[in-house]
C-alpha cells in the first residue's frame, strides 16, 4: 500500500484533509511520553505508599501507614507540651502577677488575640474598638470597671443575661413609656449634649439647658450621678466625655432618652475555661494601657 507523504516536510499524512489542509501523522514528542510514564509510575508508587483507595467503611492505609490525622494529632501533642509550662503558671498565678511578667504577657497577648478574634471580635471588632451598640475596649472608659478582676468577672457572668451573678443594667425608655413628655425628653437630651459640648450652651438657650439639668437631676442622676460621670456599680456610663456607645449627636441622645437602652454581653463561664477567661481579661486590659 502506497503511503502518501507531504511534499514539503516528507512526513506521512493521515489521509485526513480539512479545507485543503492535510493532517500530518506526527508522532507524540518523546518528552511528553517520558513525562506521562514518570507521572504514572509516581501515581502507582503513591497508591502503594500512602492512604489512597476507599474500601467500604475504611481505606487502604499504604505501606508508610501515615495520614493527615496522624500528623495533626502529633502536632497537637507537641503544641500542648509546649504550652504546658506557661499554661500552668497562668492557671496558678494571680492576674496582677501575670500582668507584671513581661515574658508571660507576650504569650498572653498572642494567645489572647486569637481568643478575642474567635469569641469577642464579632461584636467589639477585631481591633476591639467597638462600634454602634458595642463599647470600645481600647480606651480607659469602662462601664463596669477596668481593673483585671472586674474585667474577668464581667466576662464570666455577662450583662443582662440569665446568670445568677450576671450584671444587670437597663436604661428606661423615658419617652416611649410616658415617664417624660416630648419636651422633657428634649430638655434632658440638650443638657446631656451640653456636658460634652460646652459651646452648645449660648445665652439664647442657657435657660433651656438649665431646665434640662433639672429634668436630669430628677430622673437620671440616680444612675449616672449628679455630676453625670456615671456609676460603675450599676453599669451607668459617664455622660461628660466624648465616648458614646449609641452615638453622641443630639438626635442620637434624644433617641436614647426616648427609647432607652439595654446592652447585652454573653456569659462566658460555661463556654470558656477559667484559664481562657484570665488570658482574655489580661489581653483586653492590656489594650487600654499606654504605649501598648
TrEMBL record:
One of its GO terms (biological process) is oxidative phosphorylation. Signal peptide: none annotated. It is found in: Cell inner membrane. Binds 2 heme C groups per subunit. The chain crosses the membrane at residues 32-49. The keyword Hydrolase does not apply. Keywords: Cell inner membrane, Cell membrane, Electron transport, Heme, Hydrogen ion transport, Ion transport, Iron, Membrane, Metal-binding, Oxidoreductase, Repeat, Respiratory chain, Transmembrane, Transmembrane helix, Transport. GO terms for molecular function: electron transfer activity; heme binding; iron ion binding; oxidoreductase activity. Heme c 1 binds at residues 120, 123-124, 265. Component of the cbb3-type cytochrome c oxidase. C-type cytochrome. Part of the cbb3-type cytochrome c oxidase complex. This is Cbb3-type cytochrome c oxidase subunit.
